[in-house]
Amino acid sequence: MRFEEELVELLPRLRRFARGLARDVSDADDLCQAAIERALKSREQWQQGTRLDSWMYRITRNLWIDERRAAGRRGIHAPIDDAVTQVAGEGASEVEAGALRGDVDGAMAHLPDEQREVVMLVLVEGYAYREAAELLEIPIGTITSRLARGRETLMHLLGEAA
Amino acid sequence: MSFDSTMVAAFVDGELDDLTARRIEREAESDMALAAEIARHRVLKTKLKAHFAPVVEEAVPERLRALLIEPKISNSLSSRREARRARFAPIHWGAIAAALVLGLTIGLKPWMPVADVGDANGALVASGALATALDTQLASNQRAGAAVRIGLSFRDKQGRTCRSFEGRKLSGIGCRDQGRWALERTLTGQAGNDYRQASSGALAADAAAMMAGDPFDAATERAARDRGWSD
Q: In chain A, what's the furthest Cα-to-Cα distance?
C-alpha cells in the first residue's frame, strides 16, 4: 500500500489520539494536520516494516509537546517539568472526589501532559507498556508510574475512588 | 491485599504473565477488596475507551484527507469501507425501508433510483445504469452526452475482461467476474472537464498496469460484448 493510503487509514485513530492530547476538536485537527505535513516531509525517515502508527503518534506527540512548551514560555500553559507535575497532581486531589463524574474531558484536563499522553496510549489506544515506552523514549518504570498517577487522579475526579 | 495498585493496573492492562494473572484472579475470588480494586480499574478503562471511541467513527475532515488524497485512483480498503459505510447510512436504511414498504404494497418500483454500485460478498460490483453501460456500451460508438463513458476494454493478467469507465459520480475499472462487473478501481468523480482529463490519464495508467497484451480494438470489443463478456 502506498504511504499516503496507509496514512489515510490511520487518520481516524490519529484524530482520536490527538483529541485526547489537545481536547478541543479544532486544536486536535490542527495538530493532526501539522503531523501529516511533517510526516509527508520526512517520509524517508520512516523505516519500511516498522509500525507507521507508532511513528505517526510520535510525530504528533512531539509536535504537541513543542507547542505546549512554546505556549508555556509565553505564559499560556504551565510548562512541563516534574515540579509542576507534583503541583498539578496535588491540585487535582483537592477537587472533591467525583466532582467531575461523567466529565472525562474535564478530568483528563487535570492531568499533567506527560500523564495524559501515557493514559491515551495505553488505556485508549491499547499500547503495551513496552511499546509506549519505546514510542515516548522513556523507561518502562516511568510509564507505569505516570500511568498509576494518571489513573488515580482520573478515578478520583470521576468518582471511581475505592 | 497482597497485590499493590500497580500490579492490579498491570493485570487489567494485560501486562502480567499468565501465572501471576491467574494468581490474581484466584485471589480476587475470595478477596473482596482486591476484586473491587480490579473493578475500579476496569471501569475507568472502559469509560475512557467509550469516551474516545466515537472519534474514530467521525467523518475525517476534508482538510486532512486532502493532504493525502489527490484526485487519483483509489483501490484502498478505506475507500471500499467508506463506500460500504455510505450505503448503510441511516438515510439509506430509510430508503431501503421505503422501498420494502412500496415493494410489499405495490410491487415493482420503477421510480426508485437504481444505485450504480452494489455489494457482492463484500466486493464492490457495478449495478444499475453503470452495469448496463459496461454490459452494452461500445467505446467505438458511444453518444457524446452518455452518462458513463467507456474507456479501454482489455484482458487483465488473471484472464478477465476489464473495462475502464468514467462518469460524473464515479470512474474506475470493472472486471468481469462470475457474471458481474467487479469494481477493481474506483474513483469518485466530480463534474468538470479538467477533472475528466486528469482521471482519464490515471485510469489509463492503471489499466496499462493491469493489462495482459493490448487493449481491445473496436472489432474485438464488439465480439466480446456479443459473447456476453465471457470467454
A: 51
**Contact residues, A window 73-92, toward B, CB-based 8 Å cutoff:** none
Instruction: Report pTM.
Output: 0.56
Mean pLDDT of all residues in B187-208: 64
B4 in contact with chain A, both atoms CB, cutoff 8 A: no
Q: Which amino acid is at B39?
A: A
Q: Nearest 5 degrees, angle CA B226-CA B227-CA B229?
A: 100
- pLDDT value at B112 more than 60: no
- Find the domain containing A30 and state its range: 1-77
Contact call for residues B44 and A155 (beta carbons, < 8 A)? yes
Q: Which residue of B has its CA nearest to A36?
A: B67
Q: Between these two residues, A89 and B5, which has the higher pLDDT value? A: B5
B73: pLDDT confidence band, cut at 50, 70 and 90? very low
> Pick from B13, B55, B69: which is nearest to A8 by CB?
B69
Structural domain range at position B36:
5-57
Q: Which of B48, B64, B76 sits opposite A123 (nearest CB)?
A: B48
pLDDT value at A33 more than 70 = yes
Question: Looking at the DSSP assignment, which residues form a beta bridge with residue B150?
Answer: B165
* Whether residue B83 is found in the same domain as residue B28: no
A73, A84: one domain: no
Q: How many Å lie between the alpha carbon of A153 and the closest alpha carbon of chain B?
A: 11
Q: Are residues A14 and A90 in the same domain?
A: no
